[in-house]
Amino acid sequence: MCDWKQGVIFPRGSENAAFAPYFVGRSYLNMLSLEGVVIGNVTFEPGCRNNWHIHRAAKGGGQILLCTGGRGWYQEEGKPARELRTGDVVHIPANVKHWHGAAKDSWFAHLAVEIPGEGAGNEWREPVDDEAYGKLP
């Protein structure tokens, strides 16, 4: 059984207070790398998800999610939500509106790998609709 208090593969980290305004529910963040490629271990409590957001870049950019534990969701605007499990990899192109987070009944952890790009930055948008999220299995 996984010890979510300590972390799945990498230590869980502290409560993600700096980004709390962009999440529904509680998440935790442990920055693993800030040199060259930014990598964060993000852990979501059951039901926690981030707001819709866009990884902006003029060239390059985007994000890769490496799912390390639990069950979660990823959705791009205009597409159905995709269930995520341990071992799944998600390639998120730059300038694509999306969200990701835990399933209602499961913790979820992933490594968020920021792809370097020119003029890269995050644009945080509205929360995921509670009714739409509630319909996910």
UniProtKB/TrEMBL annotation:
<dbReference type="InterPro" id="IPR047263">
    <property type="entry name" value="HNL-like_cupin"/>
</dbReference>
<protein>
    <submittedName>
        <fullName>4-carboxymuconolactone decarboxylase</fullName>
        <ecNumber>4.1.1.44</ecNumber>
    </submittedName>
</protein>
<dbReference type="InterPro" id="IPR011051">
    <property type="entry name" value="RmlC_Cupin_sf"/>
</dbReference>
<dbReference type="InterPro" id="IPR014710">
    <property type="entry name" value="RmlC-like_jellyroll"/>
</dbReference>
<dbReference type="Pfam" id="PF07883">
    <property type="entry name" value="Cupin_2"/>
</dbReference>
<dbReference type="GO" id="GO:0047575">
    <property type="term" value="F:4-carboxymuconolactone decarboxylase activity"/>
</dbReference>
<feature type="domain" description="Cupin type-2">
    <location>
        <begin position="42"/>
        <end position="105"/>
    </location>
</feature>
<dbReference type="InterPro" id="IPR013096">
    <property type="entry name" value="Cupin_2"/>
</dbReference>
<keyword id="KW-0456">Lyase</keyword>
